[in-house]
Amino acid sequence: MSDFQVSQDLLNIYLEDARGHLEALDHCLLTLEREGLDPEVVSAVLGPLHTLKGNSGMMGFSGIKDYVHRLEDVFSHVVEGGVPLEPSVFDRLFAGASALRDAVEQACREKTEVRDLVPEQTVLEMLVGQATAKAAGATALEALAGASPVAPSVPASPAARPRSHEPKPSGSQYVAPKSSMVRVDFAQLDHLLNLVGELIIHRTKLFQTGKELAERLADRNAGQELLDAVHQVAGVSAELQETVMDVRMLPIRHVFERFPRMVRDLARQQGKEIELILEGDNTRVDKAIIDEIGEPLVHLIRNSVDHGIETPATRIARGKTPTGTILLSAAQESSHVVITIMDDGAGIDAVTVRRKAAQRGLLKGDESLSDREVVQLIFAQGFSTSDAITEVSGRGVGLDVVLKSIERLSGLVEVETVPGVGTKFIIQLPLTLAIITALLVDVGDRPFALPIGAVVESLKLKPEEIHLINGRETLRIRDRLVPLLRLSTLFGLRGGGGAEYIVILGRGDKRLGLVVDRLRGQQEVVIKALDPAVMGEGSAVAGATIMGDGRVVLILDVAVLFEGKRHAFLHGRADAASVVGS
Amino acid sequence: MLRKILAVDDSALIHQMYKLFLSRYKNCKLISAMNGLEALDKLGQEEGIDLILLDINMPVMNGLEFLQRVQKEPAYQSIPVIIISTEGKEEDTIRGLKMGAKGYVKKPFQASELHGLIEKITAA
Amino acid sequence: MAEGRKRSGKKASSDRPVVESRRPVRELPPRRPADEAPPPAAWVSREETLFFPADNAREGGEPSRISLPSSGLAEDILARAEAAWVEPAGPEPTAVVPVEPAPVVSSRDEGSRVHNISFFAAPTREEKKATEAQEHLVSFLLANEEYAVDVRLVQEIIRVTEVTPVPRAPEAIKGVINLRGRIIPVVDLKRRLGLGEVEATRLARVVVVKLRERLIGLLVDGTSQVLKVPVSLIEPAPEEVVEIDANYIRGVAKLQDRLIILVDLPKILGVDLREAIALAPPI
10 Å Cβ neighbour count for A540? Predict the structure, then answer.
């Protein structure tokens, strides 16, 4: 036994590999359950298990190693028919897979084995014991894996995640080789992206300076050459930027993969029959999004399972098929990724939502909201779904948390529903987070940046168009009343005086006008991480960026600007409510 | 004097560990292959491989098949091969030994065990 | 296949003996005639027979298997084969070595990092010896008093550049600065410690520290130097000296005519370091 600390690098590699193997295991179990015994499916999982076993042994996780070894046993007995594939057996195997996953994750977090797998291992041993008793006295067990060295080893038909492009005859090995890929530390990639970001900042400057210089040079040829060279640099750095951004993009399948299993488990728990269909899981999305979107999706899917899909009996009574369907799809639309979660369940009843919202004081003076708008309130803070939205009650899931998570990704979410027919959640996310186009504004001689996606329009402030409605400055524009927010007041900065501008921000149906001193134009900026310590209560800052001259410019959090305003009307300034969302 | 070691294994983790374990051999280049086919490729590309660390269970082409082919090539026959074995696959290991591998070590193994074996084999 | 090859690796019970590296290969009693396998098909070599005992050696459903030590040279292993000894696995009446399953820690041992990690021995760390004798510190000035922190926390010290204030940030945070492309918060240490405020003089500095992968800048009135202070000169802080919260002080060092107050930086910044995960944008 050595007493050395496990290096984080090694743990990361082990964990990543292990997660892939565990997913292969889940996939295998799901397929077996759905389609019955298929020796090829089983052999496809033996390879990953074997590798997981070896890796775990090398990391010193002998409990995990032994457990996986036992799993291998079970599977080989499964193929020989020694272990019947009944629901109770599957339940135990699935439970075992979950336990294994737990053990692996914990071991990696704690850098030492924490979870005791002996109980689960005993369960497996029982399964094997029953099988062996059956086989005692029988003829030699056929070797399953382990191709004879003389026969060429043949790889499997793509079972889990095919990655190779060579045609593979069907056989008994496992997932295709990974040799066409390179393993890159995400931190390195981020660093690369940072460098590219810097390059972009300087490229612009180079371009401008180059132009000026070229014009002033007496020697026209040299000037032209300089310009040409600068153009080249600009072109190459643009492509570099695109390529690096592209490298960060991964198929959303990485997130979706977990869900079939989750839905299966939940459905069983609740006595429902649900089929989860995945669509567009090849859609590529920035890794930062992949890292964050999982949880909100879990909540929304749980919602569909818990509150959406009815029990088979109820469904039949309503003239539906006993098996409910949830469709999880992802698609790219211009510069966005759109993820939808659609179920054919009970839908959301606007009447109930309206009542609940009123009860929670979310609706004062807002009776004019249409059904469609009212339903969006399920995302409002303070509106918990734990009370029945539909007839099915269950554990509440905070949709307001989901909204916050999605907005942190600069995304939007909406719900469409038809009572009795189904519900559809629509999430819209930017393709990439790291670089955005921003509108730069001055507030009291300090520059700030607003993501252009949230900007509807900007106009010069004309005092005659501003009205005081119940104590709140409001702009009348094209028959709409838009509430105003003076950033100088919000930030406690002194206004620059003189000409002022209004930037109209949009969020879904809502509009908000920001009063600023000056508009500085649009620019591509690289979003830099901001230490969370810096964000105080009600901080309206989402991030920061660095300008060409090295100055730090803060990027404003549009959601907070709206919310700050929204809290005002949700908390009783009901009069303002009639003005919003018109 | 070890100049080049070819490590053949389908686990990225193991390759990372080899990097650690074999760092004591200064001026020795570590070449990685993820399966037997790739390993054959590397043998062709790199000259002067002094030692092969060979896993058995790999996709595309497993270790035993690779070994069989290697033994047929006069140019590669003499390269010492160490089989990296796993508990439960002893028959494959023994097969490999009979095919000409010079030794084996079982996973999980200590670095020192690997070094000891390497030194015994390459000293000859 | 008629070789009678079994799918190796199946342990029907968990007390299969595990042969470890230090234990020698067990000597076996000579093969009893009853166990002799009926000769398989003619084309199987004699060696094969040795290593693959026939099925009927499986009593009670225990598959026989080969055992090998944890490593070995071909010449040794194959020579043993020649000697026609074979090791059937499975419980032997005499030689059973019950195996303890590898200790799986079900509760975490505080402070003990036990790993059965088969890792290459890293060179022993020498530094432990050194720090026993001395503390390596960086000192700075706050309101004419000298304070110091462990040098290992300090990444660099820079002059005060333009600090961009962040509206509605916590009181002690003066703002953020651009540190070679990275945006880091700047904490006014005097504000944080209740000593007033650091003024923007030529002498003011930002001490950039790294705490758990986070870079934070500490705004101070001035810095003096990097010091090596023998541990023997460090004492707990006397009451009178303490202007700041005693919790923040690790001790004081008395050097000739100077008194240096050693502070516990993680404690001081503790509140600010609260992982405000909910607020952080991803990236």
Answer: 23
Q: Where are the alpha helices (DSSP H) in chain B?
A: 12-21, 36-45, 63-72, 74-77, 90-98, 111-123
For the ranges A283-297, A399-413, C30-44, which has the lowest average pLDDT? Answer: C30-44
What is the Cα–Cα distance from B2 to C5, expressed in whole angstroms? 38
Q: pLDDT for B6-63, tens place per residue?
A: 999 988 889 988 988 888 888 899 999 998 888 998 888 888 899 999 999 888 888 9
Those residues of chain A whose CB sits closer than 8 Å to some CB in chain B are: 2, 7, 9-10, 13-14, 17, 47, 50-51, 53-55, 57-60, 62, 65, 69, 145-147, 149-150, 152-153, 155-156, 164, 173-179, 183
What phi and psi, each to the nearest 5 degrees, are found at residue A45? -90, -15
Express each pLDDT in B64-91 by its tens digit: 999 998 988 888 888 999 999 887 788 8
By C-alpha distance, the chain B residue nearest C63 is B88
Contact C167 A553 (CB under 8 A): no
Sheet-wide strand order for A466-469 = A455-460, A501-507, A510-516, A480-486, A472-477, A466-469
What three-state secondary structure class fits A23? Answer: helix
Q: What is the DSSP string of A218-235?
A: S-HHHHHHHHHHHHHHHH
Name the packing angle between helices B36-45 and B63-72 (round to 10°). 30
- Calpha distance A568→A574 (Å, rounded): 9
SS3 for A196?
helix
Q: What are phi and psi of C192, to 5 degrees?
A: -65, -35
pLDDT in tens, C223-257: 878 888 888 888 887 766 566 777 788 888 888 88
For the residues of A63-98, what is the DSSP string, one character each? HHHHHHHHHHHHHHHHHTTSS---HHHHHHHHHHHH
DSSP annotation of A113 reads -
ipTM of model: 0.82
Q: Do C74 and B102 touch, CB atoms closer than 8 A?
A: yes
Amino acid at A547: M
Asked if A396 and A356 count as a contact pair (C-beta separation under 8 A), the reply is no
Question: Cα–Cα distance between A374 and A357 in angstroms, integer?
Answer: 8
pLDDT at B124: 55
Residue of C nearest to A549 (CA): C178
- Which residues of chain C are within 8 Å of residue A129 when distances are taken between CB atoms? 12
C168 touches chain A (CB under 8 A): yes
Distance, CA of A214 to chain centre: 47
CB contact, 8 Å: B62 with chain C?
no
What tokens appear for A159 in the block?
């079972």
A54:B68 CB<8 A: no
d(C-alpha B51, C-alpha B78), whole Å: 9
Alpha helices in C149-253 (DSSP H): 189-193
Q: How many CB atoms lie within 10 A of CB A152?
A: 15
Cα–Cα distance for residue pair A423/A432, rounded to 1 Å = 28
The position carrying tokens 């062996």 is A132
Strand partners, C220: C205
Asked if C206 is an interface residue toward chain A (Cβ–Cβ < 8 A), one would say no
With tokens 């469904």, the residue in question is A315
